[in-house]
């Protein structure tokens, strides 16, 4: 039970009666004026507080006279309000005394309410007047001090004309006009003065020379590098699961996959550790930013995880995280723009300024969405640190699309590409573009016992269709070839649906709906055939099917699909022609595990079905798609790929005293001479180089494959000389250096030799019937095309 003191009620009632609406209004005006005054004073003091900004030298102090005038006006206003309130209070007190019937006796502790209020306002007015006088004195002193400093340093705050810094004056002009365009400049202390511009442009950015009167010790003091720690293989992935976060269906899928493969990762780490022996491995600090999962990029994948959407990207990212963690490196994982900005040290603003600190990561793995986000928010630091970035790029980026100027001039510019990175910084899902690095993913590896069980449990007449979304089943002509297949095999599907069976799926197909990964694996272990409809391209499912003992049947494309004739590839930074749904399976695995036929040819299709039913295969998984294979590959990249060092071999025009090449005994190609010294920074090692002259219209990618080799773009600089053509007995009537992604090459007719002028345009891809390209090839490890035999 709550009781209320009667005296309290009386006091509240009297206060409400005493404080008339007009008094409340006047009191509110006075309080507002006081608050505004104190805010103004706070702004004046904070704007001139020493030590808040690194720019302690000003050429002028703004607002001195204006501030004193405002203070005087406020003080006068308060004094006028006090006089008027005093007069009003007297009149109202007299009228209340008359209404009270002559009651003129007040207790000692109950003076008229207006009296105390008036005394307080008068005291405040006096304090404001005193503050105004003191602020006026401070401002006068500040103006005097800064005028003396400005006179002494005015000549030192002019843009210098230093030939080593040719852009300095132009950047100062830009800062004068645009420094307020991004709050990050004020964050670094820019305040509109010449000195602040020069200090920013010399100490935060690097367009102007250091100012001689500045304390250079603080500006040049770099943080001491952390002591090197050796990387140690990990087998427990529980901490990685915590690093991956939660809250998205895509992350849940990735964590389930990682947890399911933990034992295989641990066994692979043990095997690789034995293979490497006592090799020292420095632990790297690595940021993994999955840009396509950020809300800012739309995150179209997460909502579709449980509806049959594409999972290939999430499969690959889960395996990348697992591989980096198992190799023993320090990881930070981000899936939001806010997390990315925090980890990079992005200053507040719109992304025009450099980072607030040196980049704390040795490597950054991201995708095209993340790359764009970094460029928008890292300012000049993006250019400084982009050599540390690795871009996960499913379909690859060819050099002609990567070089911004060249792509713009020659029609190769797309919505992706044009980043001017080293093409090897792009990392693909399959080894289809040797200009890029092959990252890959893993499929579950079976032991011998599991392989024997699968072979004994196979149904000879069971087929599973590759395609979880109903839209994939809309392919034209499917009724014809599915009708043929249905004569020989029972057809199963795993098409997502909510309530009703998708009408695109024929009635004779047994649809299981969308299956969890373990159940889908069990279905593949029973099936004889895994059949594709031509889409999706180059996904992980065919490799999983082959690893579980299925034969993969796919369609041959005629003409091949590319950005020139197919909507899916249009806009992608590649001119690669795709001759089947899964070129890797066709070219690197092939029969008996992979059959590629023309689905429009009913006789060829039916003959293939009959042959497949007679064919027995064992479960097969290429080594490069095992956990050990992926660990081996990523270990080699981290150890040897360094895109932050200056290029080693000289560009055209430089002459070496002795050519490192010799003509092979059969006079068909060049080899690295046994007595030639190796380029110290070359990786892969230069002794694996084999140089061939392609036939007209043939790309280097295909030329090297024709000889059982892989095109190696890092070897192009060794061949970019007239000497290489002479050793191949090619007569060069003239030799020119130009920017062209097909060079070095020999042109017929005319007997002209062309050398490459731009290192970023060295390209294995590309062909023209006019040119015979000079192609650098190398050998490769069995089951690991990304690495040469001496690369590990």
Outline the structure in words.
- With 792 residues, the protein is of the alpha/beta class.
- The chain contains 27 helices and 21 strands.
- The strands form 3 sheets. Strands 14, 15, 16, 17, 18, 19, 20 and 21 form an 8-stranded mixed β-sheet that branches. Strands 7, 8, 9, 10, 11, 12 and 13 form a 7-stranded mixed β-sheet that branches. Strands 2-1-3-4-5-6 form a 6-stranded parallel β-sheet, with helices on both faces.
- Strand 14 and strand 15 form a beta hairpin.
- Helix 19 packs parallel to helix 23.
- The longest helix has 41 residues.
Give the CA-based shape: globular
Structural class: alpha/beta
Helix content estimate: 40-55%
Poorly predicted parts: 1-27, 31-71, 91-115, 137-155, 653-657
User: Rg to the nearest angstrom?
Assistant: 38 Å
DSSP helical segment count: 27
Subcellular location: Golgi apparatus membrane
Membrane topology: Single-pass type II membrane protein
Protein name: alpha-1,6-mannosyl-glycoprotein 6-beta-N-acetylglucosaminyltransferase
Enzyme class: transferase
Topology readout:
Layout (H helix, E strand, L loop, with lengths): L5 H13 L2 H27 L16 H36 L13 H41 L14 H11 L4 H5 L6 H11 L11 H5 L17 H6 L5 H12 L1 H15 L8 E5 L22 H15 L3 E5 L2 H8 L18 E4 L1 H11 L1 H6 L3 E4 L6 H4 L1 H7 L15 E3 L8 E2 L9 H9 L5 E5 L11 H11 L1 E4 L16 E2 L5 H10 L2 E4 L8 H7 L3 E11 L16 E3 L2 H7 L4 E4 L4 H13 L12 H14 L20 E3 L6 E3 L16 E5 L6 H7 L3 E2 L4 H4 L2 H6 L6 E5 L6 E3 L4 E5 L14 E8 L14
Parallel strand pairs: 1-2, 1-3, 3-4, 4-5, 5-6, 7-8, 7-10, 8-9, 10-11, 11-13, 18-20
Antiparallel strand pairs: 11-12, 14-15, 15-16, 16-21, 17-21, 19-20, 19-21
Helix pairs in contact: 2-3, 3-4, 5-7, 10-12, 11-24, 13-14, 19-23
